[in-house]
Amino acid sequence: MANPSSRSLICLALLFFAALAAGCNEDGKISVDGTASWNGQPIEKGYIELQPIGEGHFASAEIVDGRFTLQTTPGKRLVKVIAKKKVGETPPSDRIPEAQPIMFQFVPPKFNSESTLEMEISASQPSLAVELEGEELQPKSGLSADDKRKMSL
After folding, report:
1. How far apart are CA 143 and CA 147, in angstroms?
2. C-alpha–C-alpha distance, residues 46 and 31, integer Å
3. Looking at the record, which segments are called Disordered (predicted)?
4. Largest Cα–Cα distance of the chain, in whole Å?
5. What global pTM score does this model have?
6. How far is it, in rounded angstroms, from Cα 108 to Cα 62?
7. Cβ distance 75 to 120 under 8 Å?
């Protein structure tokens, strides 16, 4: 018969392996694979943040072609998404001889700076589908003289 300290050690080992089987790292974080879409279309380029509500860790990841992967702990999170698309290019200049893309953040503030979107991260199902819908923000028509001056600096 095992003594009490041996039983405790066996229990700790079982808990450790159970956590590994559930996909947890030593720090309790799990790998979360996710998708992000805007009005049914994958977000081509962007950024996602998961802020803890209560306990947990802050996590963030780049969104590429509607997909992202990050490490976080299970629990409820406030979700913030920044999504960008190319709306033009800078003109070549002496300082930057090749045209550079001009990116515009088109998701309304209710999904980023003013977000109230909450989602649950589960260790048993570590995936997240962020499906956003709404009216897309539009860039200002044309660049102001000040914008053009800033880009040529």
Report:
1. 6
2. 19
3. 130-153
4. 84
5. 0.73
6. 18
7. yes
Residue 27 or residue 91, greater confidence: 91
CATH superfamily of 27-134: Immunoglobulins (2.60.40.10)
Residue 31 makes CB contacts below 8 A (sequence gap 6+) with: 23, 69, 70, 71, 126
> So where are the chain's domains?
27-134
Q: Among 104, 111, 123, which Cα is nearest to 45's?
A: 104
- Torsions phi, psi of 109, nearest 5? -55, -25
Rounded distance, CA 153 to CA 151, Å?
A: 6
What are the φ/ψ torsions at residue 58 (nearest 5 degrees)? -70, 140
Q: Is the dihedral of CA 141, 115, 135, 107 positive or negative?
A: positive
Place of tokens 């570590």: 126
142: three-class secondary structure by DSSP: coil
Q: Please tell me the predicted confidence (pLDDT) of residue 57.
A: 87
